[in-house]
Automatic annotation (TrEMBL):
This is dolichyl-diphosphooligosaccharide--protein glycotransferase. Its cofactor is Mn(2+); Mg(2+). It is found in: Endomembrane system. Residues 491-522, 783-814 are annotated as: Disordered. The keyword 4Fe-4S does not apply. One of its GO terms (cellular component) is membrane. It comes from Apatococcus fuscideae. Belongs to the STT3 family. Its EC number is 2.4.99.18. It catalyses: a di-trans,poly-cis-dolichyl diphosphooligosaccharide + L-asparaginyl-[protein] = N(4)-(oligosaccharide-(1->4)-N-acetyl-beta-D-glucosaminyl-(1->4)-N-acetyl-beta-D-glucosaminyl)-L-asparaginyl-[protein] + a di-trans,poly-cis-dolichyl diphosphate + H(+).
Length: 814
């Protein structure tokens, strides 16, 4: 008597001794016998096909990494190897100090060139991951006898890590949905515009390495979730520590993981793998984060971390109840469950009362201002104008989604739906990641950067599922018989044989392999209702059209990403470029011209006042001491500068003299048409200054109900220092560009006050295109320069002098 045993997808029929053994391959309703020689040949063919697939897969990943690096080099090709924006200049300056003085001295560095007269402790106020990475790479290159300047390392670090981020996205999605979806996610991540905006060559900012760290932590977490390996859990904790060192956005991770943990517990997905993935990361990650000076005890004292501790406690309680259930009889378990739940609720109630009392004692309830702005989008505009004044902290416009993620706007919803078929612990994590990232991106433009990897991963899943369904429909012939119409097919009509299941039933079997196996059997995929053998089969012609449209959309995505990288995100903020109607290129290098003048024409110990936007650049490029910079840690000091800019000339002169200021720098765009100048930022100076000094009121600077600089501007605006320093001698010069006396090209109007004179400040430098203007703070005010009219009667002059207002000492003011 023979027995039938199912093994994988093959049915092996065992016959009595002396008879030839045959292997029967089951395909629907048809069983085809194979001889041992045929089976051996088929196995060898599968192995060769698998090896070839791995080679193609590796080559595709290499091409994706090269593409991710090269698409970010437009800034170097079009301009030069230069640091971009504002914050990267501080990071570059710190990295230079690190390479000269060493890692240890960085912790103890007190920088007296910033925030005069307060100074700043650098080691305790920075996230050092970016600088340490650049410093380590610089030392490695010099160890290999490659004498590359530290600036070049800083310029090309972000493109290098963008390639690493694409690899991380591949590994992350591969763990969830398999290799095909991983390759699509990596390809999307490599060129997505939102990520390019912060990782072009020269963008030496924290996000350049932090986004890689973010995705890599998620990959290791999901890997641990699938395998239950403590080694992977340790690796995820180390990766999380690097993320904490690199960017303040680590709080997104420490809040997303508990959400996923609680979701698994309350949806019946509690397992030892979840415990191994979550608990070690929280314990080791919190201890490691507390060792970073900029974080310190905030890792356990701030409300941003309390959710992780709550989920940690709930996880242990749920596992304890599960253990008690396994060792006690049903009745005893019910009594123990009641006792545990009652005691647990009491303990949690006491802890919540203590935490609530601790949180209520803080004016911000234990949250940072930026975190509260995410939870309440109106919070910053109401209470912290310095946060609201930053353009990247504003909510994004709808078109920015299409600009930054393009076709992924359509693929993200499909990817979310695909992750439910089948729903695993890993795919649930990707769903939560996508949903939370979409929310936060709607609150703050800057967090479009967090959405980009999530959109790429979800888009990769959706694109892979859709392309898989279409290619199956294209490869499968039209039905020609009733048997085929009923759902059966011959062996020749069968698509490519799926990869065999791995041998053995190890405990660490990945859920991604289970999902891949489910899809290979024809169940569990998003588009299984379009199976070629089912009634919902896609006609081959329709499949060809849909496949062509999909490929066309992907080509448009590639073209859009290349254009955005070349034209929108590659221009450094210090070098501007415009094109005339004839296609000619005009380059404006006023910023470096002004910083160079300060560096070579002023005393090395002089103090320079400007709005905080330009503090980092002034310190790094001009090597001069500044009053405020982009760190914005002291709101009162920034408000003092804003008050000086909003005050009349004499009052502003007194403020700057008290601060030992020798030069004042303003950025003005009315001459050449540069919109991001200080006149457009002036209302924020008023709001920030008015938040500390009540004598500064915003309504005093509004004319006819709005902010304007024309003849309807109020006296407070026309007489303030910012207005005078910006428009001094401008009326005469504007005729050279516009032919109109006093016409402002940014505000598109004629200014309200054209005859401006300075008594307490002296113009010392104006750049070629009037974009940067520098004034010296005089030791004494200028005398009146008007000559006496010899034809004027003496009696009239005596009458005029007697009518002048006198000071407290009785002498007329000079």
């Amino acid at each position: 008597m023979s027995t039938n045993q199912r093994n994988g997808g093959a049915l092996t029929k065992q016959k009595p001794a002396g008879q030839r053994e045959l292997t029967v391959v089951s395909n629907g309703d048809i069983n085809v016998p194979l001889s041992p020689a045929d089976l051996k040949s088929s196995t060898a063919e599968k192995l060769n096909r698998s090896a070839a697939a791995q080679i193609v897969n590796g080559f595709a990943l290499l091409c994706i990494c090269v593409l991710a690096f090269c698409i970010r080099l437009f800034s170097v090709v079009k301009y030069e190897s230069v640091i971009h924006e504002f914050d990267p200049y501080f990071n570059y300056r710190v990295t230079g100090f690190l390479t000269r003085e060493g890692f240890y001295n960085l912790w103890n560095w007190f920088d007296e060139h910033t925030w005069y007269p307060l100074g700043r402790v650098i080691g305790g106020t920075i996230y050092p991951g970016l600088m340490w990475t650049a410093g380590a790479l610089y030392n490695l290159l010099h160890l290999l006898n490659l004498p590359i300047h530290v600036q070049e390392v800083c310029v090309f670090l972000a493109p290098l890590f963008s390639a690493f981020c694409a690899l991380s996205a591949y590994l992350f999605v591969k763990e969830i949905r398999g290799q095909g979806a991983g390759l699509m996610a990596a390809a999307f991540t490599a060129i997505v515009p939102s990520y390019i905006s912060r990782s072009v060559a020269g963008s030496f900012d924290n996000e350049g390495v932090a986004i890689f760290a973010l995705v890599f932590v998620f990959y290791l977490y999901v890997k641990t979730l699938n395998t239950g390996s403590l080694a992977w859990a340790t690796a995820s904790a180390i990766a999380y520590l690097y993320m904490v060192m690199s960017w303040g956005g680590y709080s997104f991770i420490i809040n997303l993981l508990p959400i996923h943990c609680l979701a698994c517990i309350f949806t019946g997905r509690l397992s030892y793998r979840l415990y191994v993935a979550y608990a070690p990361l929280i314990v080791m990650g919190t201890i490691g984060a507390a060792m970073i000076p900029v974080v310190g005890f905030n890792a356990v004292l701030m409300s941003e971390h309390f959710g992780a501790f709550l989920a940690f406690g709930v996880l242990h309680g749920a596992l304890f109840i599960q253990y008690v259930k396994s060792v006690l009889p049903v009745k005893a378990y019910q009594r123990a469950k009641t006792l545990v739940l009652t005691g647990g609720v009491a303990i949690i109630g006491v802890l919540l009362a203590l935490v609530t009392g601790y949180v209520m004692a803080s004016p911000t309830f234990g949250w940072t201002g930026r975190s509260l702005s995410l939870l309440d989008p109106t919070y910053a505009s109401k209470y912290i104008p310095i946060i609201a004044s930053v353009s990247e902290h504003q909510p994004p416009a709808w078109p920015s989604y299409f600009t930054d993620i393009h076709i992924l706007v359509l693929l993200v919803p499909a990817g979310l739906a695909a992750c439910f078929r089948p729903l695993s612990d890993a795919s649930l994590f990707l769903i939560l990641y996508g949903v939370t990232a979409v929310y936060f991106s709607g609150v703050m433009v800057r967090l479009m950067l967090v959405l980009a990897p999530a959109a790429c991963c979800l888009g990769g899943v959706a694109a892979h599922e859709f392309l898989l369904a279409l290619t199956r429909a294209v490869r499968t012939p039209e039905p020609v018989s009733a048997a085929v119409a009923d759902g059966s097919a011959s062996l020749l009509d069968t698509p490519a044989t799926p990869s065999p299941a791995p041998k053995g039933k190890g405990k660490g079997k990945s859920s991604a392999l289970k999902a891949e196996k489910a899809r290979s059997k024809g169940s569990g995929g998003m588009f299984d209702f379009l199976d070629a053998s089912g009634k919902g089969r896609i006609p081959r012609d329709v499949a060809w059209i849909a496949l062509g449209a999909t490929l066309l959309g992907l080509i448009f995505y590639i073209g859009h990403c290349v254009w955005v990288s070349a034209e929108m995100y590659s221009a450094p903020s210090i070098v501007l470029q415009t094109r005339d109607p004839n296609g000619g290129v005009h380059v404006f290098d006023d910023f470096r011209e002004a910083y160079g003048w300060l560096r070579f024409n002023t005393d090395p110990n002089c103090k320079v006042a400007s709005w905080w936007d330009y503090g980092y650049q002034t310190t790094a490029m001009a090597n001069r001491t500044v009053l405020v910079d982009n760190n914005t840690w002291n709101n009162t000091h920034i408000a003092t500068v804003g008050r000086a800019m909003a005050s009349p000339e004499k009052k502003a002169w007194q403020i700057y003299r008290d601060l030992d200021t020798e030069y004042v720098l303003v950025v003005f765009g009315g001459f050449i048409g540069y919109p991001s100048d200080d006149i457009n930022k002036f209302l924020w100076m008023v709001r920030i200054g008015g938040g500390v000094f009540p004598d500064i009121k915003e309504k005093d600077y509004l004319g006819a109900g709005s902010y304007r600089v024309d003849d309807q501007a109020p006296p407070a605006l026309l007489n303030c220092l910012m207005y005078k320093l910006s428009y001094y001698r401008f009326a005469e010069a504007s005729t050279m560009v516009t032919g109109r006396y006093g016409f402002d090209r940014v505000r598109n109007t004629i200014i309200g006050k054209t005859d401006i004179s300075l008594q307490y400040f002296e113009e010392v430098f104006t750049s070629e295109h009037w974009m940067v203007r520098i004034y010296r703070v005089l030791d004494k005010p200028n005398r009146e320069t008007k000559l006496k009219n010899p034809r004027r009667p003496k009696a009239a002059r005596r009458t005029t002098s007697s009518s002048r207002p006198r000071s407290a000492s009785g002498a007329p003011p000079r």
